[in-house]
Write a structure and sequence with these properties.
The complex is a heterodimer of chains A (114) and B (113). With 114 residues, chain A is mainly β. Chain A is built from no helices and eleven strands. In chain B, the strands form two sheets. In chain B, strands 2, 4, 5, 9, 10 and 11 form a six-stranded mixed β-sheet that branches. Classes of the chains: A mainly beta (114), B mainly beta (113).
Chain lengths: 114, 113
């Protein structure tokens, strides 16, 4: 158990809908990272937040957005869902913002779009 | 753009045999990680390799890093069924204000009795 929690574990929804995935980092960690794992794209970095501010951005679609709140939990919002958005979404956390920190991964949220 | 390539992508081996998984990356790396993933589960960190020539071992797994060749290897010694999983290498790159991991495609290892 990494100490990173994600809810929900599973989510099934229809095309065109909007969902919110939630992540709580390890106690004391200030950075949160979001990754998407799909059969087509493999494991891809989406976005990083550090202490409430966006720090790095990957191939995140415009339909997706994220934020980190003052209590350091983060939410990933996915809207206008398409079948291709079906994937395992991981959150990771680290103590600081830089590359010297190891990232600890949560259990993931499996999203199924039907 | 940083690219990370693993080979083989699929590996079926018998118990007791040895094999090596290769991870090539395209640009200078700051850190390299190896992860294990069981089906439908999260990523379990196996090794962190920090510098050229680094070698780490845990049980039947040994990882090494050659930064000049931009190559890391994960060697499996005397494989057992419990090692069946997907193994990922990932390269950490720093950016102006943050960082990210870029993953290889993963190697799906099946160890047969």
């Amino acid at each position: 158990d990494s100490g990173v929690t994600q809810t929900p574990k599973h989510l099934i929804t229809a095309t065109g809908q909007r969902v919110t995935l939630r992540c709580s980092p390890r106690s004391g960690d200030l950075s949160v990272y979001w990754y998407q794992q799909s059969l087509d794209q493999g494991l891809q970095f989406l976005i990083q937040y550090y202490n409430g501010e966006e720090r790095a951005k990957g191939n995140i679609l415009e339909r997706f957005s994220a934020q980190q709140f003052p209590d350091l939990h983060s939410e990933l919002n996915l809207s206008s869902l398409e079948l291709g958005d079906s994937a395992l979404y991981f959150c990771a956390s680290s103590p600081r913002q830089g590359l010297w920190d190891e990232q600890y991964f949560g259990p993931g949220t499996r999203l199924t779009v039907t | 753009e940083l690219k990370v390539e693993q080979n083989p992508l699929f590996l079926s081996m018998q118990e007791g045999k040895n094999y090596t998984i290769y991870c090539n990356y395209s640009t200078t790396s700051d850190r390299l990680y190896w992860y294990r993933q069981d089906p439908g589960k999260s990523l379990e960190s196996l090794f962190v390799l920090l510098s050229n020539g680094a070698v780490k071992q845990e049980g039947r797994l040994m990882a090494s890093l050659d930064t000049k060749a931009r190559l890391s290897t994960l060697h499996i010694t005397a494989a057992v069924h419990d090692l069946s999983a997907t193994y990922f290498c990932a390269v950490a790159r720093g950016e102006t204000s943050g960082s990210r991991l870029t993953f290889g495609e993963g190697t799906q290892l099946t160890v047969n009795p």
